[in-house]
Specification:
156 residues, alpha+beta, SMI1/KNR4-like, nine-stranded antiparallel β-sheet, 5 helices, 25% helix, 24% strand
Length: 156
């Protein structure tokens, strides 16, 4: 079982319908980017969905913890969850064609960001804190899903 399988089994609340290869190609054309291979496979096999608030446990101490609410998908049930939704693409200056693509959001208003630029770093995942900094969190979507954990019952 992969980390993505495990995350979907444990945390998905609502899963978006799986897209066809043509729908994925249409989304890439609409957004203006070819998704990294592993992310393309993720969309075709899992798509996005709404999650039962798993904690994203960052590997870097400086990165704040947050809770995943949604991973965007093709044919999402709500516009805010649609992959490449125009209002999310315009959040960043000088991002045309997209070098970074919001692919999800968190309970604290943070964004999960996919690096779509050619070269080193393509496919890496970042956390963009609401009104704050960017933090590197994973090499790819599989590693990102491995960071999802049950909320702690320990009230620090």
């Amino acid at each position: 079982m992969t980390a993505i399988d495990d995350a979907y089994r444990r945390f998905v609340r609502v899963r978006f319908p799986l897209p066809t290869e043509n729908q994925l190609a249409d989304a890439e054309q609409r957004v203006g980017v070819v998704f990294p291979d592993d992310y393309r496979r993720f969309i075709l096999e899992f798509n996005g969905g709404y999650f039962r608030d798993p904690v994203i446990t960052p590997m870097e101490e400086a990165c704040p913890e947050d809770v995943l609410v949604c991973l965007s998908g093709i044919g999402a049930s709500h516009e805010c969850a649609e992959l490449g939704e125009p209002s999310t693409l315009c959040l960043f200056d000088d991002n045309d064609p997209p070098k970074i693509l919001p692919i999800g959001y968190t309970a604290m208003g943070g964004l999960i960001i996919l690096d779509t630029a050619p070269g080193d770093g393509r496919g890496e995942i970042y956390y963009k804190q609401a009104f704050g900094d960017f933090y590197w969190i994973a090499e790819n979507i599989e590693e990102f899903c491995a960071l999802l954990q049950e909320p702690s019952d320990d009230p620090e």
